[in-house]
Batch of 2 targets.
Target 1
Amino acid sequence: MSTWKKRAAYVAVCSLALTGLSGTFGTAAFATEGDDVAPTSGAQFDTLAQSLLTEDAVQAVATDADGNVVIYTTEPTDDIGAGARSVAEDSSNVVVKVMDEPISSYSTNDVVGGAGYAGLTDPNATSASLCSIGFSAWSPAGDPAVISAGHCTEDGTAVISGLTLPTGDAAGGGNDSTVTVTQALGTLAFSQYGGPGNTPGADGAADSVDISVIDVANPALTTLPEVTDWTTSATEDLSGSTLPVRSVGAAEVGAPVSKSGRTTGFTSGNVESVGWANVDGRQVSGFLSVLTSSQGDSGGSIIQGDRAVGVVSGGTTVQGQSVMWGANIQNGLALTGGYTVALFLDAPVVTAQSTPYFTDAPVSGTGPAGATLTVTPENGTPFDVAIDANGAWSFAAPGTEGNYSYSIVAKKGFDTSAATTFDIAVVLAPPVFTAPVNGQLIETSLKAVTGTGKAGATVTLTGDVTGTATVDGAGNWSVPADLSYGSYSITATQDTADVNPTAAREFQAQAASTGTTVAFQVGPVAPVISTPAAGVVYAEGNGPTQVNGTGINGAIVTVLVNGVSAGTTTVADGEWVLPLVGQLAAGSVTITATQAINGVTGTAATSTITIAAATAPAATPGTPAALANTGAPVMPLLGGGLALLIAAGGMMLIARRIGATRTN
């Protein structure tokens, strides 16, 4: 049982349901009759926690995800100090959990050092602190380092370190008698266990930490931003199976967590709460996790997914269940003077392309967002390309045809990804037509074919226009043509002797580009519509009866009225005429005329006229209003006297009944 006098509080920052943990922490005492509610955050909670931590049996004070204040003790509620007991009994949201032993650090100080690494006071030391490496790191100058726990350095006296043989460590099947130091690791650069200067630390203070930094002095070592799962320890190569570390952050309460250490290897559990605890008399900010750990795991890495959240600081058991205290890595790093955790960057990926690249076309791909892509050509000067916020990058393919090899890496800060190498084949892009363009209708004739290409290249036209031209310094070319009415197709290629002189010559034979083709028509101008002239207004029933105009002799003129075909006619002596069937309906009428020669229809002429609707004459003043037609007097007449009605002026009678004013 511990007799620690000073304790520190830690605060839950994320949601956690304590499902499945009943029994793990012994009897949990809840205040069933108390009406008070203990504070769970802010200055009031800090004051409460600091007060409770002065009691001998209280090991830590925290809040869980259910809004409870959790008092971790080494004694049942009845045996803890009066102040803590009073809070537990009088508050409805206080839980007491009993630990088997006080939280203690996992560093071993036996003679024969070694555990992941061994910390020694001098090269001739006969004993060492056996601990575990937490994470690869960078010094402020970008030199390699590793991060571990501060208590592993024995308050800064273990200033040199050496790596140990994995199979000699407990996690690799060894024991303390088989620990073997294989090679030098480095020298101590920074260490703090507790408060500044390795003092006990202040209750609830962010600068109460457990962290050390070792500068890697062995040039034969390569630090990797990865965490081993210990499954390859039998090969002595722990990098054979790893998990990447892509970020650094705070521990998330209730989320899964894993740790890796030289004693118990790779184990997983859940983060229960975060805050501060007293670890062998020193205050350490961090978090409590329910998972397997043991002495020698100290300093080992703690990750949630691919995020570094802490290093192993200490632990204990509760009714035989191992619990671990992890030191907050962010708080620790803030005191190191600029050391940072090395992060894993995914290697950049090149977007697959099944065909060769055209000159100056974009070579593109993906990589870590916000990083810089360093491109190293096989023959050429390296250059950098930004990777945007969406993880996309691109650079222009060479402007000279040939085969090219590249190596690309992503960089962010001092972190560098693995290299990606790839080859591309660059071929000359086909020239571009500027006139005519694909699908274009050209009026009357085509006198030249023009376009753009690579300066100095030779453009060759085949198809309905043949010829060659040299692309000028501005990138333009022109070939004479003489095409009249008809449908045509032209293909253009360009070639140059400018090919990249590499050893791989696979595409040198393709110094000539592939072809690009345009299909187009040369057609007649629009015919002229003489009548009806645009804008004329006709009375309903007195509209035009024909459409006529002028055109090209022999052309076939097609006329549409409001989009509906009205027929075709042929131009003779420069004129054409097409009769219209029936009168045009009232409203706006659009007449369209085109003429076609050699099967090619030219542009259209239009004439829009208006057919004004006829207006009924107004009624004569004083004329009686129309009478309602009941049908009663009309039916007998219809049945037997239709001839009489007509003879006797029945039409006038009907006209009067409907209120008409005309007479026959």
Target 2
Amino acid sequence: MVRTRIQCFPKGIRRFSQQSFRTQPHRFIKDTVGISANCCQILDSKDIIKPFTAFFCDSPSVNGKGMPIAFNQSMNKEFISSLLEHAESQLRSGNLEEAEQVCSDLLEKAPNNVESLFLLGNMAHQKGNCLDAVSYFTRAVAESPELPILHLNLGTSLMVLKRYEESLAHLNKAILLDPCYSPAWFQLGVALEEKGDLDSAIEAYVQTQRLDPSHDHAIQRSADIRHRQNRMEDALELYREALRLQPDNFMACNNAGNAAKYLGRISEALAWYQKAQKLEPEQRICASNYLMTMLLSTECSPEEIYRKHTLWSDTFEKPFHHERKPLSNSPEQERPLRIGYLSCDFRNHPVAFFIEPILASHNRQDFTVFCYSNCESPDMITVQLERLADIWRPIHHLGDEDVNDLIRSDGIDILVDLGGHTAQNRLTIFARKPAPVQTTWLGYAATTGLKSIDYRITDAAADPPGHTEHLHSETLWRLPDNFICYRPPANSPPVEPLPCLTNGFVTFGVFNHFSKITPETVDLWCKLLFSLPNAKLLIKALGMEHEPMQQRTREMFVSRGIHHERLELVGRTSSIYSHLELFGKVDISLDTFPYNGTTTTCESLWMGVPVVAKEGNSHVSRVSVSLLGTVGLSGLVAGSNEDYVALAAFLAQDWKNLEILRNNLRDRMRASKLLDTERFTRNLEGAYRQMWRRWCTEQGKQIT
């Protein structure tokens, strides 16, 4: 419900601001309701005025600035006064139902009393009874169709019921009655946004701000839409504008950080997240976003990243230690186990593509698979994954305590986090320790920092023994082979012939998320292009379909001396098939650093395109070491910046070897452990069993 209290009414209905009501309640009551001065004297008691004020200043209406009260002046004023006094006493005791009854009593005396219908509609909406709210507001509109506020609130309740056409009709009617009615314009934007008409929603928000330049919510919602449309340059500027109006808006700071990160402005993103944390230190979303973004920075050392993760734990994990309860899991080492996977990415997301073959391949005699889905917007991939789980638990609508109780009641033996500090994570559930063994895997390229998570699943290439243990709060559990398994899309396009043979020049390709493209990486790509004057570079990234992002990308290279015509910039494609087809235009893929690609590396290899990578000294910059090594291409991993450029340049001049790789890579992948789902799943299950045995042994020691 929109909640403004200043409205535009026809002549004869007064307008009062929330502030004027708080400071001059007697005048408001006398002038608006029309009660006697004697009644005002009766109300001259703080205990009575206070709840009356709370009623009119805190009841739902339309945006927080004023509320219409224009009781039927022809009715007996003493009768109205007595009803008000009774409503006051009920409101003072917190009896909202009785307050509603008072309005209902008034309707019995005056069935068409618009003000009672209006208040009843607002109270019904506030309680979530939007069907009742629509009924009250419809009756009120029938009596006073000239009041914009009635159409506004009716349209708002209809929107909640997803009756969008009816909602839009009444919101537009409110605007027709008063074209300068900014609350109606704002709510029109919300309804259009809910309906999915994003560009029209933006127009409504722009009009809202034109009428009310201080309306920061309209600006922020416009920014959120631009973010959803991958128009990050526009989104970032709008978030800045929202913060100029409301500097303490922590969510605008957080979202500005998201937009800056998306654009590869990592230092700026970190600054935005830090500002958001200062505004709201208890908001863990900003702290997690900060940690995730540190992984993209060339200025943050692995040791500093680890320290920041442990600080997150000190702030957000420790408070839940006292909520841990004894577990009833039976410590039998060889019994069937209950495995719980918890993720917000059981949808069209890389995590889903990697976990799907594992869910399908689990040995159901030894393992029962539970999936706890924190997806806000499920899709067709969600449906497919749900079919693969033994038990599917949607948890997006549940609080942490409820999820904790659910996991405990399900008797989960090993709870697996698939997200780390990524968006919409539920790490504070793990802080409560609802399962005997807890591990993190797949979705996050670093430690979680949580002491309540026992293990982090990896391999010896991504985390060489003796080299990265000090960067983790968890015990590293290295699988025998690779730490992930890739299943190519069933409808993959065929591998295309090597394009340089037709073009006469080599085309390098980058398919990683744009946030991974650091200035240091661009420096090396430009050095590579300088060494090969005829070579070109194709960059495919979300948001590149919009001109501002294309222009900024061109400037990154032009400022380093590379002509823009040597670049081919590609944005979002319509399907995974068309996405994979683009690899047919590329001879060699270039990996990013310090944050390596994962899905894009697998896709490139599957499409016959070798990937040149640079290794680092922590997991996030060693993923490609694992992937390329698993398919026998360790020679494509460089150890330094100079080697990275030299290796890519050397490969670009060996067209014969490139053609051999192109023709053989897909078969090589098929024969590798990277695509051996059964082998990988057995390795993973073996790790789960050993973790469980270790816990059982510890329990036996405690009993002894």
